[in-house]
Structure formats: C-alpha cells, structure tokens
Amino acid sequence: MPVWLREYSWRQSGSAVYLSLPVRGVRVTPANIFCTDQYLKVSIPPFLFEAILYAPIDDTNSTAKIGNGIIFFTLYKKEVAMWDSLTLANANKEKLQYLRENAILKAHEKAKEETEAKKVTKQEHKKYALEATMKLEEAERKRIEDLKEKERQKVTKELELWKKQQKDAEKQKRVQKEGELHQEVEKLKEKKKEKMNKTRIANEGTSKTSLKPTKGCHGSYSMFSENLKEEQLPAPRSTATIKINFTSRVFPTALRESRVAEEEEWLRKQAEARRTVSADLSELEDLKEEEKNPDWLKDKGNKMFATGNYLAAVNAYNLAVRLNNKLPLLYLNRAACHLKLRNLHKAIEDSSKALELLTPPVPDNENARVKAYVRRGTAFCQLELYTEGLQDYEAALKIDPKNKTIERDAEKIRHLIQGTTQDS
Amino acid sequence: SSSGGLERPQLVAHVQRALNYTLFDCKWVPRSARLLCLGSAARGTGVLQLYELRGGRLALLREIEKAKPIKCGTFGATSLQQRYLATGDFGGNLNIWNLEAPEIPVYSVKGHKEIINSIDGVGGLGIGEGAPEIVTGSRDGTVKVWDPRQKDTPVANMEPVQGESKRDCWTVAFGNAYNQEERVVCAGYDNGDIKLFDLKTMSLRWETNIKNGVCSVEFDRKDVNMNKLVATSLEGKFHVFDMRTQHPTKGFASLSEKVQKSTIWQVRHLPQNRDIFMTSGGAGSLHLWKYEYPAQRSKKDSEGAEMGVAGSVSLLQNVTLSTQPISSLDWSPDKKGLCVCGAFDQTVRVLIVTKLNKV
C-alpha cells in the first residue's frame, strides 16, 4: 500500500502554476516524476503523489526542480486562465484510471516520436558528412589529374621545341659542311693549280693524291669524317675462341624446371611419419622401452631376415607397424619377408602400401620405389599373373633404367607371356 | 603511381600505338625523334617500322618487310652519320641495314644455328673508343663478337666445350670499353649462369649463377671502367653487381631485389644518369630505380684481399601499362626522360619520365 503524499502547497499566476511538494527522507531522481499534459505523478516507493490537473499544461516546457526534501514544480498552463483548484474536483475512480492509462499511452507515443525524430536527424547528418567527404576526395583527385595533365603538356611542348631545334641544327650543320666542302675544294683547286704551275712531271704523284678528296665530295660529306675515323680505329681483333662450361645442376633440374616443392613435401611427410605414434599403448605396456621404438624394431627385423628367420622378422615388423603405420620401409621390408615365406598376397599388399607411402616420387626415395615394384612384380609372377608382374618390372625399369638384373627379369617375363599365349 | 609524392618522378604515358604484328624490340634512332619497331608479322616474316613522334602521335614513316622475323636490334656499333641498324633474326642471321636503302643489307652473315636472342653494339655513335663491334647471343649456346669490317667469321666466339650440353644464351652486353684495347662481354643464360668474357685477354674473367634464368644484363655505361652491372631474371628478381672490385674467390659484390612474382624482362639505364635504371616486368609494369652507393665501395677481407661492398636500391616510381609483358625498353639518348617500350599486347608506348633532374 503506497503512502499518499497529501501535504502540498500551490499558488498560480495567469500563465503558470507553482507547486511545492515536500518529500522528506527519500532521494528523488527525475525517474520518479511522471508528467503528461493533464496528469502529474510522483512515485518514490513507498510514497505516492498524483494529481489530475484542473486544466491542461504544456508538459514539455514545464519544469520540476528537485531540492533538499522538496520538489518544486513550475507548470505552464496551455490556456491562460485562473484555476479554481489544482486538481479536478469531481474525479471519480474510473475517470482517474482512464486518465492514468491515457497519460501513460501519450507519454509512450511521445517517447517514440522523439526517438524517430532523432534517428532521422542522425541519418541526415551521416549522409551530409559522407557527401562532404566525397566532394573533398573528388576535388583532391581532380587537382592531381590537372597537375599531371599540365606536366604532360609541358613535356610535349618541350619535346616539340627540341625536335625543332634538332631540325634547325641539322640544317645548319648541313649548310656549314657544304660551305666547308666548297672551301676545301677551292683550296685544293688552288693548290693543284700552284703545283701544276711549278713543275709538271714531278707532281704526277702528288696530284693524284690531291685528286682523291675531290672525287668523293659530291654531296656526301660523311666521307671526310669516315676517312679520318678509320685512321684512328684499330684493326679488327684477331679471331679467338673461349671455351666455356655451364654450371652443373645443383638441383636435379634448373630452377625453372625444378621440383623443389615435391622434394620438400617428401621431407615433410617423412618428418611427420616419424612423429606418428599409434594408439593402443595399453596393450604394449609390457614391452621393454626399446621394443616401443619402431626404428629399433625395424633393425631387429632386418637382422632376423638376414639370418633367415623370416617369421620372427615379420613379427618384429608387425609390432613396428602397430606403433607407427606411416613408415614405408617397414612395409617394404615386410613384403620381402612375405616373399620368402611365399605369402604372396601379403607381399603384394605390403608392397602396394609401401608405394602409397612413397609419394611424392623424388630422387630421394628412388631406391625404395624400385625395390617395392620389383618385390610386387615377383609376387605377381609367382602367382602366375605375369602381365601385372611385367607392369611392375617395367615401372621399376623406368626409375632405374641402368639396372641389368631388372632388365633381364623383365625379358624373361615377356618370353613367358609370349610362351603362354602361344600355348593357349 | 601514388599521388602523395608528386615530388617523385612520374611515368607519364605520352603516346601509344597499336600494331598488327608481334613486337620484339624497339629502339630510338640516335639524334632524332624517330623510333624503330622490330618484330614478326602473322605470316612469319620480319617487320621493321620507322615512326616519328609528331605532336601527340606516332607517324609511320617507313615499313620494311624481311624474310625472317626479327628479334633484336642495335645502333651501338654504327657512326652518327651512317646510323646503320644491326639486327638479329629468328634464323640466326646477323644483318646490318642502311635504312635509307634497306633492300640489301650492308653486312650479312648466318652467325648462329638458332635464333639470336640478344644483340649489342659498341664503339659507335661517338661513344667510347676502339673498333666498332657487335655481339650476338643465341639459343645455340654461343656468344659471338663481330667486326663489320670482317666478313663471315666472328672475331671472338664463346662456345661450350665439346660434349657439354648447351644452355640458351638469353642476353648479352658490352662493357668496360674505356680505351682502345679494353672490352668485356657479359652474357646471361637460361640456367642462371652469368659469364664475363674479357676480349683483351680472350678469357673468361668471372662467372656466377643466380639460380633463375637471366633475362637481361646491362652495364650502367659501356664506355667507362666497368662500374655496375644489373642482371634481371625470372621470378621477379634482379641483381646489381658492383664491378669496381673483383675478389679472387668471391667475385663481385652484389645486392638483389625481388619485385613481383613475374619475370623481369628488361633493364635499361638512363643514358644521362647511370645510377637510375628502369626494369620492365611480365605483368606489364615498369619500375624506376635509383642506386645509392655505400659509404665505402670496397673493404678488406680477413686475409687482406680487397672486396667490393654493394650499395642499396630504392624504388622511385612504378606504373602498370598493360596486362602483357613489356619485353623491350629503350631510353632516348637525346631527350632525358623520353623512353619507348614494347609489350606483347602488340602496342608500342612512348613515355615521359618527369622530374629526373630532382632525383
């Protein structure tokens, strides 16, 4: 149950109402005050004050001043008139309720309108800002374009001017040269006349030499400079050869044809394979430390293979594979064991798995791939699947063409195939 | 090119022209506003076109057709008055043409068994001293030096030893021609070999391997004591070698720079400033670089032998002009900043590089 505040005092002028409401013992904030054009409420739990005003007021401009234990309202009347009382006298419950609800609705609508108006103004401001920025950028761009265009025109002008100068200079040179030529010719003619006047016979030789320049002077003044230059030029160099070597390939091929990417992939795969440790360690708890190392197991397997103990070798490889199923050499060696044990299908399986793991094909894993193909080929042949066997032998030969053993075996298989087709 | 550095040189596209043949090389005709385009027509013949820069366009002055497609050309060994063009073609023939009378070549020899990939000339154009010579590098693995006064046989031949499998020679360049006797030839091969041949002593002076095929080599100046050599390669790399100090085992000091993933087809130094050079790329871009020398160009190693110190290179500007590789590039020797480039999109473009004086 709220505590109604009934102690208040008010006075009025023609245009405004001044209401003081004492609120003792509680802090008042603007949130506690609710006002519409005909309804005023102050709610500070548990205190409550409400008033249906005598006449409408301008609630946007009216003010409430929160003082120390008192709220002072200044309410501006919508119509200038003197009120008989602050509140409506004959306000019954229903009217009160209606007014209350109305008031709240109105307040809501007002609030909505205000937010809408705010949004619109914000949008407009944004748009304006954007347009302004765009204009600035456009202006900047234009300025630069203009500068560039000016430069271009300046340079074009300079170019034309220079061209003109060149032409003029050339013309001048030509005129000059021709002038000089004439002078030379005149001088020589003079000299000739002089010499001829001196003695006729003794000057046969000299007159010949002085005739030479005059021959070539019909327009091509270049002859002069040509002759002069030739005198200063050294003779053509005596012919010689320099033998060269080219840098041998560091990578298998020159970088532009290199397969560095694949080689790196192969190395990465190897590194990853080393790190793989398969699950199932629970079963392997009773193994010794070294028996958990795939490399150690591989070595053990190799040793047993060498002594002819193929079953034990297979066991060793099996265990190694359980620990790390990404090492191609394990499968490769196990395939060899299976061949010896005549487990031909298993040999084929293991060789295939090894080949799978030996990708990408790089020079580094050439040997391994050759062995895998040979072993698989052998297994096929022992199963009398000679065509498949030959395919694998030929694949091996492709990698290692110089291997005579493989070549011979491939030949043998070919003969066998030809023999069987003849029989059937 | 970024807008924020208008103080930097700008690569401004001036004029371009679409051609109806594959363009392999483009060269400025010295002392003129004319340029030559060399290439291969669709029907498998060689094309030579002479253009002149007039106002804002390229005017075609002359078109010459030859039997074999032409791969490369140079004016390097001709005099300023004659301005004869030396070309290498797809059939391995070296020809020298007088463009005023191009029906019969002034000099002709079937120099190589396969296409001549690259050609350079020295001793002409009033630059440097010594005999005019032309060097050609071919897919047949040999590099040959020719003197236009000697018919049929080269004056020097750099070939693989008997039994050695050949590698294509992709690029050649002359250098160190600072007096009448001295001269070197640098050759780059498709396996990354770079070899430096000394023509005075007729010997191999230095070799190295930069792993990727060498597309282009050039000395910063042909006619001075060799100073710097730039070699560009596949996979977007180029190397700058300091050629002033040769260490007995380590050779020449170098720096390398990676530009983009694509091949760097050409490098050309600015004739008016040997520390600025442009590289052209397989993605249709051009990059303008400046080399800065280190504080000390040489230092002593632990055993007291002199070794060079490489400097640094900074990118001044770059621009992308095409989607196809820009395979040829030439600076005008007469107008600073004017350059022509040819791309595999059958377009020849003339560019102006501005503000080179301020670099």
From TrEMBL, chain A:
<dbReference type="GO" id="GO:0007507">
    <property type="term" value="P:heart development"/>
</dbReference>
<feature type="region of interest" description="Disordered">
    <location>
        <begin position="189"/>
        <end position="217"/>
    </location>
</feature>
<dbReference type="InterPro" id="IPR019734">
    <property type="entry name" value="TPR_rpt"/>
</dbReference>
<keyword id="KW-0966">Cell projection</keyword>
<dbReference type="GO" id="GO:0043005">
    <property type="term" value="C:neuron projection"/>
</dbReference>
<dbReference type="InterPro" id="IPR052004">
    <property type="entry name" value="Dynein_assembly_factor_4"/>
</dbReference>
<dbReference type="GO" id="GO:0005634">
    <property type="term" value="C:nucleus"/>
</dbReference>
<dbReference type="GO" id="GO:0005576">
    <property type="term" value="C:extracellular region"/>
</dbReference>
<dbReference type="GO" id="GO:0036159">
    <property type="term" value="P:inner dynein arm assembly"/>
</dbReference>
<dbReference type="GO" id="GO:0120293">
    <property type="term" value="C:dynein axonemal particle"/>
</dbReference>
<keyword id="KW-0524">Neurogenesis</keyword>
<dbReference type="Pfam" id="PF13181">
    <property type="entry name" value="TPR_8"/>
</dbReference>
<keyword id="KW-0539">Nucleus</keyword>
<dbReference type="GO" id="GO:0003351">
    <property type="term" value="P:epithelial cilium movement involved in extracellular fluid movement"/>
</dbReference>
<dbReference type="InterPro" id="IPR011990">
    <property type="entry name" value="TPR-like_helical_dom_sf"/>
</dbReference>
<dbReference type="GO" id="GO:0030331">
    <property type="term" value="F:nuclear estrogen receptor binding"/>
</dbReference>
<dbReference type="GO" id="GO:0036158">
    <property type="term" value="P:outer dynein arm assembly"/>
</dbReference>
<feature type="repeat" description="TPR">
    <location>
        <begin position="370"/>
        <end position="403"/>
    </location>
</feature>
<dbReference type="GO" id="GO:0007399">
    <property type="term" value="P:nervous system development"/>
</dbReference>
<dbReference type="InterPro" id="IPR007052">
    <property type="entry name" value="CS_dom"/>
</dbReference>
<dbReference type="Pfam" id="PF04969">
    <property type="entry name" value="CS"/>
</dbReference>
<feature type="domain" description="CS">
    <location>
        <begin position="3"/>
        <end position="87"/>
    </location>
</feature>
Automatic annotation (TrEMBL), chain B:
<dbReference type="Pfam" id="PF00400">
    <property type="entry name" value="WD40"/>
</dbReference>
<feature type="repeat" description="WD">
    <location>
        <begin position="134"/>
        <end position="147"/>
    </location>
</feature>
<keyword id="KW-0053">Apoptosis</keyword>
<dbReference type="InterPro" id="IPR001680">
    <property type="entry name" value="WD40_rpt"/>
</dbReference>
<dbReference type="InterPro" id="IPR015943">
    <property type="entry name" value="WD40/YVTN_repeat-like_dom_sf"/>
</dbReference>
<dbReference type="GO" id="GO:0006915">
    <property type="term" value="P:apoptotic process"/>
</dbReference>
<protein>
    <recommendedName>
        <fullName>Dynein axonemal assembly factor 10</fullName>
    </recommendedName>
</protein>
<keyword id="KW-0677">Repeat</keyword>
<dbReference type="GO" id="GO:0120293">
    <property type="term" value="C:dynein axonemal particle"/>
</dbReference>
<dbReference type="InterPro" id="IPR036322">
    <property type="entry name" value="WD40_repeat_dom_sf"/>
</dbReference>
<comment type="function">
    <text>Key assembly factor specifically required for the stability of axonemal dynein heavy chains in cytoplasm.</text>
</comment>
<keyword id="KW-0853">WD repeat</keyword>
<keyword id="KW-0963">Cytoplasm</keyword>
